[in-house]
Amino acid sequence: MSTFKAPKGTFDLIPPYSATYLAVRDAISGPLRRSGYGYVETPGFEDVNLFARGVGESTDIVTKEMYTLTTKGGSELALRPEGTASVLRAALEASLHKQGNLPVKLWYSGSYYRYERPQKGRYRHFSQVGAEAIGAEDPALDAELIILADQAYRSLGLRNFRILLNSLGDKECRPVYREVLQGFLRGLDLDEETRRRIEINPLRVLDDKRAEVQKQLVGAPSLADHLCDACKAYHSEVRALLTAAGVAFEDDEKLVRGLDYYTRTTFEFVHDGLGSQSAVGGGGRYDGLSEMIGGPALPSVGWALGVDRTVLALEAEGIELDIPPATSVFAVPLGEEARRVLFGLVTELRKAGVATDFGYGAKSLKSHMKNAHRSGARYALVAGERDLAEGLVQLKDMETGEQEPIALDRVVEELRAKSA
Ligand code: HAM
């Protein structure tokens, strides 16, 4: 161990565990890549005001959880706590919304940072795969994204997750509801901080986890009753499309989400085996965000799925992904001459596309073979002086234990055929 450790709330991804992360990222991005989403990558940090304005000055993410820094040049930056504001900023900056048909569909994968109290499933550095569909107001787009996330989870074998769905209304009906709700909440017996929240973000109060608060919220005015006709029609179309696609969901009027940019459709994927950090992913529509960050009106929708929590969900369901071994051939040299010849062969095999590793260091046959087994390779190539003198190497099938000599000049061809 060195003097240093990974910072609090972070952990390293190391083999073989890290392979599961790669497989999960692949499984989540696969359905997106097959549905017209293009890959986007943005910097790990942005102007702090992008998040203050975009995610919202009243959210925990902005007020408590952002890693902010002042550069030597005096710029105020923040490590990205989420991806939506950055991706929209990048799309606007590149004028993607002017270059062809809308929506602009983008997917991303990366690290995000929130200064949260660490616990299982909640880290200060975590990993998301996300998707944003920018510049179209169409219930089919909301449905598409939810269906693709559902497919991604199912392709991993996950079953014990649920989809919670809500509509938060739009700029017509939400302000009206907000006032009605504030009127109700002001009459309750609540602590100072919660009273302050009533004035800044009353919908978040509905989300309060404390039983004594929830008791008082019985009979609170419901947003569903206050949705305008356009929002109601939009929401019932999203629901109908999901039902037609065979994707089950639960209506959850209390689903508010922790970011301020949402309008209309919001959803969360929760897994029942994860304890308190049960949200494996979430998202929704954010029709006003572009204007909030200085862009034109661009109604949009997206989600982000947490890779760390998806891996925990796999563990909770006892699912082991079928990850093929990274190496299919392991070359074991016995002696100096064999090292040179086999090393050359290894390079040829790799060029031919056969995943190959080599027994490095002066080791005994036994310890080389141990490494060959550990690599997961199906075949070992073993050669000593006597084999080479005859122009041969020994090809050992690690599964059956069978061994056969093959001519040096046939090795690449044979192994390419075998490992195809
Ligand atoms: P979010 O709900 O804040 O949404 O995060 C999405 C997912 O990221 C969560 O469901 C969770 O799995 C994971 N996550 C968040 N914080 C942590 C943490 N501290 N540790 C581990 N995992 C975490 C967003 O970020 C929005 N940008 C989603 C979106 C995209 N909305 C529209 N487009």
Describe the structure.
The protein folds into 2 domains: 18-173 and 227-316, 2-Layer Sandwich (BirA Bifunctional Protein, domain 2), CATH 3.30.930.10; 329-419, Anticodon-binding domain (Rossmann fold, 3-Layer(aba) Sandwich). Strand 3 (68-70) and strand 4 form a beta hairpin. The model has no long low-confidence stretch (mean pLDDT 95). Helix content is 39%, strand content 21%. The strands form 3 sheets. An 8-stranded mixed beta sheet has the order 1-5-6-11-10-9-7-8, with helices on both faces. The chain has a 5-stranded mixed beta sheet with strand order 13-12-14-15-16, with helices on both faces. It contains 17 helices and 16 strands. With 420 residues, the chain is α+β, with helices and mostly antiparallel strands. It is elongated, with a radius of gyration of 27 Å. Histidyl-adenosine monophosphate binds at residues 82-84, 114, 116, 122-123, 126, 128, 130, 132, 258-259, 279-284, 286, 302-304, 306, 308-309.
Q: What is the topology?
A:
Layout (H helix, E strand, L loop, with lengths): L16 H17 L4 E2 L5 E3 H7 L5 H4 L4 E3 L5 E4 L4 H10 L10 E10 L11 E10 L4 H17 L5 E7 L5 H14 L5 H9 L1 H4 L5 H7 L5 H4 L2 H16 L5 E2 L11 E9 L7 E7 L3 H4 L7 E7 H10 L12 E5 L2 H16 L4 E3 L6 H11 L3 E5 L1 H5 L2 E6 L5 E5 L3 H8 L2
Parallel strand pairs: 1-5, 7-8, 12-13, 12-14
Antiparallel strand pairs: 2-4, 3-4, 5-6, 6-11, 7-9, 9-10, 10-11, 14-15, 15-16
Helix pairs in contact: 1-5, 1-13, 5-11
The protein binds histidyl-adenosine monophosphate.
